[in-house]
Design goal:
- The chain is α+β, with helices and mostly antiparallel strands.
- About 50% of the residues lie in helices and about 20% in strands.
- A four-stranded antiparallel beta sheet has the order 1-2-3-4.
- The radius of gyration is 19 Å and the shape is elongated.
- The N and C termini lie far apart (about 50 Å).
Length: about 120
Amino acid sequence: MKKKWLLLTFIFFVLMLFVARWTKPDEEKFLQVAQERINAHADGLSKDPVMIDVVKIQKDFIFQALSKLLITKDYYFFTVHSITLGDGEFRYIGVFGTFIPFQREDPLKKFYKNEE
């Protein structure tokens, strides 16, 4: 009975590694998720037509800066994405199609939020 559980655990582990290999997100996916988060936070800022243009310029600038500051390291089963900002270096692990921050603070959630 113990050998059966050991074999099933091993098969499950190999299956999870296979799934991790084929679902690891790349740099394009990270930038896409970052842009979606930035857009979601910026869209509710102002309904004033002048401010809408200012926010659009800010969003474009943030996205261009982010794409230049992003360093991606590709490992076989996951990716590590690093962004160096004035506050320090922020890292994310990309695994199973999602991004998990290594640190408590997530700068992608704080670009337009004052309450955090």
